[in-house]
Structures are given as structure tokens and as C-alpha cells.
């Protein structure tokens, strides 16, 4: 029962991480405009994402434009596109693998050892997905902070950390936690199955003892002859 609860918890964390990964990929709030110095035009907010940039006017109207060329983006955003798309595909693959390894799933049979291996695979893929999400989010955040404190960069070109980066860090931690739970469940199932097959039952031991007692040895038969 405890392992089943851990499976449900891991599946929930994996599902939340999958949704978060897709949300971070499509959100435009990776870089947001910074209101510092003479740049105090607060009725306009500029958002820059992986696929588009958006301009919001006085919290009323928002205009978004898809990037015309991938090569026009900075290197960190170019790499983040590919990594986040790969993370989205990996999270979906890990989630479906975890569903196949659940205790309540019947299409993969009732062998707990096989399901343990399936859950271990799902857990490893979830952990890898969390690391893949963590790399582009931290890379973009590092470039934003570096440019923000660079005196050479113009004030109008400086940006701040957007909401997508914070959601990305949270999503990475959730994915890693879900993967760790599945790995723990798989290890617990493997230990319990090995313990079950290594110790014989009391009934089997008693039965073998009676069989040895009833069957006389070859030496005792030769004495009667």
C-alpha cells in the first residue's frame, strides 16, 4: 500500500512537471523589461520568449509578434528552444512510461519485477528531463543578470527575470522529485521480491523434513537384505 501511494505521488509530480515544461516552453515571459534609471515608461511592458515577443500597453492591450528568423535570436535563446522542445517530448515519454508501470495498469501484466523496471526507466527519464529543463532556464537567467550589471549595455536593453524562469526552476525540481520517487519505488519492489524468493516458507521446510524421514537410505535397505 505504501509503494502504491508513492507511485501515485510520483505520477502526480510527473504530470505537473510535464504540464509545467510545456507551459514554460510556450510562455513569452522569459525576459521582461526593466524599469531602472530614466527608463520609467511603466505603461508599456516588453516580454521576450522563445517564440515571440509581446508588448503590453497599460495592462489593457497586448500585441505579440513571432520572431522572423531563428538566427536573429541570441545564442542562449536559440539553444533554449531546442532544449525545451526536447524536454517536452521527454516529459511526455516519461509520463506514459510511468502509466504503464503503475500497479493498477493491467496491459503490462502482473509481474511486479517487470513493472519495477518500467518505473525505474520512467524515473530516470524524469530526472534527465528535469536537468534538461534546468540548463536553458539557468543559462538565460545568467545572461540576463550578466547584462543587467554590465555598465556597457544600454539601460533600454537591460532585462529582468521573467515569470517563465521561476516556473522553469520549480518545474525542474518537481520533475527530479517525481523521478526520485519512481526510482525509490522500483528499488523497494526489487528488494521485496528478492527477499520473498530467498527465504523458503515454513510449510515447505516441514514438508521436505517429512519426506526425508519417510524415505530410508540405501545403506539401511542393504542391512535388511
From TrEMBL:
Q: Write the signal peptide boundaries.
A: none
Classify the protein's membrane topology as the record does. Multi-pass membrane protein
Q: What is its main location?
A: other
Which Pfam families does the record match to this protein? PMP22_Claudin
| Record-linked PANTHER family | CLAUDIN
By sequence similarity, the record places it as follows: Belongs to the claudin family.
- Span-the-membrane segments of this chain are 79-102, 114-141, 166-188
Keyword annotations for this protein, in alphabetical order, are:
Cell junction, Cell membrane, Membrane, Tight junction, Transmembrane, Transmembrane helix
Q: Tell me the organism.
A: Balaenoptera musculus
Q: What's this protein's function?
A: Claudins function as major constituents of the tight junction complexes that regulate the permeability of epithelia.
Annotated Gene Ontology cellular components are: apicolateral plasma membrane; basolateral plasma membrane; bicellular tight junction
Q: Where in the cell is it found?
A: Cell junction, Tight junction; Cell membrane
Give the protein name, as stated in the record: Claudin
> Which GO molecular function annotations are given, in alphabetical order?
structural molecule activity
Amino acid at each position: 500500500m505504501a509503494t502504491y501511494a508513492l507511485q501515485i505521488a510520483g505520477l502526480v509530480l510527473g504530470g505537473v512537471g510535464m504540464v509545467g515544461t510545456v507551459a514554460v516552453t510556450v510562455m513569452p515571459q522569459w525576459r521582461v523589461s526593466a524599469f531602472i534609471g530614466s527608463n520609467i515608461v511603466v505603461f508599456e511592458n516588453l516580454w521576450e520568449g522563445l517564440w515571440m515577443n509581446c508588448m503590453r500597453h497599460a495592462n489593457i492591450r497586448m500585441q505579440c509578434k513571432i520572431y522572423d528568423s531563428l538566427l536573429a535570436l541570441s545564442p542562449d535563446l536559440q539553444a533554449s528552444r531546442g532544449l525545451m522542445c526536447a524536454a517536452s517530448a521527454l516529459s511526455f515519454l516519461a509520463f506514459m512510461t510511468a502509466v504503464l508501470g503503475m500497479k493498477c495498469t493491467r496491459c503490462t501484466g502482473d509481474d511486479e519485477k517487470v513493472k519495477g523496471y518500467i518505473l525505474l526507466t520512467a524515473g530516470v527519464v524524469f530526472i534527465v528531463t528535469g536537468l534538461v529543463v534546468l540548463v536553458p532556464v539557468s543559462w538565460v537567467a545568467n545572461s540576463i543578470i550578466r547584462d543587467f550589471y554590465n555598465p556597457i549595455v544600454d539601460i533600454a536593453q537591460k532585462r529582468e527575470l521573467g515569470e517563465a524562469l521561476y516556473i522553469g526552476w520549480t518545474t525542474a525540481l518537481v520533475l527530479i522529485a517525481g523521478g526520485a520517487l519512481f526510482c525509490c519505488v522500483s528499488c523497494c519492489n526489487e528488494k521485496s521480491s528478492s527477499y520473498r524468493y530467498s527465504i523458503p516458507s515454513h510449510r515447505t521446510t516441514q514438508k521436505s523434513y517429512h519426506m526425508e524421514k519417510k524415505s530410508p537410505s540405501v545403506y539401511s535397505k542393504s542391512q535388511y537384505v
